[in-house]
Amino acid sequence: MSTSEELKALGNKAFVAKDYEAAIGHYTAAIEKDPSNHALFSNRSACYASLRKLDQALADGEKTIQIKPDFWKGYTRKATPLFMMERYEEAKAAYEDGLKIDPNNATLLKGIEDCDKALASSANASPFGGMGGMPGLDNLFGPDTIDRIRADPALAPHLNDPAFVEKINKLIADPKGSMALLNEDPRMMNVFLSLMKTRFKDLGIGDPTAGGAPPASSPSPSPSQENKQEKKEDKKEDKKEEEKEKEKEKEAEPMEVDSDKKAAEAAKEKGNEAYKAKKFDEALGHYSEAISLDEQNIVYYLNRAAVYMAQKDYDKCAAECDLALANGKNRDFKQMGKALHRKGKALLKKGDYAAAEAALEQSLTNSRNADVLKDKQLATKLKKKKEEEAYFDDDKALEAKQRGNDFFGKHQYPEAVKEYEEAIKRNPKDKTLYSNRAAAYTKLMAYTDALKDCEKCIELDPQFIKGYTRKATVHFMMKDYHKALKEYERAMNVDANNQDVVRGYSQTLQKIQETRGDKDRSERALQDPEIQEILREDQVQSVLQLLKNDPAAAQRAIQSNRELSRKFNVLMSAGLV
């Protein structure tokens, strides 16, 4: 379910795309979740104004002021629809109320200037007042208005439109109260101009729309000339309307101005101070204020996300990073990468490793960073581990083990290995599974893999005799008798009386005696790193020389030093001494 901030971000995105209806829907849904958020009413007011739904725009503007009286933009939200309704005095009063909050605000000052111009223009150029013998509105829209429209070939077809007739009836019933209709419907302005001409003609006054009365000697204009004049006037009016609409759109647009950005930066700095002092709730308040003043600055969202991270609220941290990506304007790849990295870290701490891996991978595509790469590798590792653990099932492990044993008994070793592998995936802590697989690998002469499984047995349970004996068997098969002997000795440290161990140890000693002087075995032994290290020691080299010149002295030296004795036993079992 979306939060109010997420819905607000969707509304902002729709507003920028000029999809005002969609924006209103998102803001309304956000208001249902957070009815005390002044910014939501402020932004919805701007949308209503853009759609010329002025009553709704005014209501939201007033609600904005009611919730947060010190929010200067609320007064512009109230003033904008009033200005568009041509209620200039009220609009000016709203702007002036805003100046009490922010006396130097450029937007408010400009609003007052526009209202003053509009008031001056209406006072000097309005043809509606009935002054100087000019017809008043009550006389202009009289009971014969419909007949006069019907007599005008250009206007008569509009009478077939019920909505048009309804608007005309409103003008007849309340000329002054319905004058806003002239701005809403271009046809109404054409009606007004036509009625003005006929009324002035009835009074013997020249056509005021043609720039003054013509000289008495001038011939009456032909119908075609009148039509040209009307078209010319209509074009002028259309141009004026377009310019007026552009101004209104600027007023309606809920984007931030320079003063907002400065205030936002100031709020951010306060938030940073609170964050350093670990006053997290206070920091959130300041960062939220910064966002309300400059919604497209990605840094403020990232700062708020950092607070949520510090509070260990990882879901909110990740959601805030998404808001940063959705709202940030003109952001660079580095900032986007930072937002995705923070989101990935939050998801990593939450334990949602798959989502964390995806976010961190995306972060790396925006900005290569060693820390991000390290976190991504960790997420991948933990995701794999989690997937493996989800596969654990002791009962199914036993079933696979039994199938493996059956295949082993039938000498079907590859099939046995496959079943033991499945069993290990289901229960990787069962030492017997590795032991059985080691036996199957040994039968297949896959000695390296067999040795790894034997080591795993011993790692899981150092007291497990079979781990040592299986390893010794593998070394024996590889003719590394000195290594086999070593594993039997390790087994004896666990259980010196184990018959399998004693028998294996004896057989290995016997084999060493039988193969003494075996050149191939000696050469292979010399490749053993352990033996190479022993032979590099000066003390060992000295005793080897002494064996040639004085065997008895060499024997005494070996017996007097326990470690030296161990090393020579290794050399002897390898067939090198």
TrEMBL record:
Q: Which domain of life is it from?
A: Eukaryota
What's one GO-annotated cellular component?
A: cytoplasm
The record ties this protein, via Pfam families, to:
STI1-HOP_DP, TPR_1, TPR_11, TPR_16, TPR_8
Picking any one GO molecular function of the record gives:
Hsp90 protein binding
Q: Which InterPro entries match?
A: STI1/HOP_DP, STI1_HS-bd, TPR-like_helical_dom_sf, TPR_rpt
PROSITE patterns for the chain = TPR
Q: Which SUPFAM superfamilies match?
A: TPR-like
In this chain the STI1 domain maps to: 142-181, 528-568
What is the protein name given in its UniProt record?
A: STI1 domain-containing protein
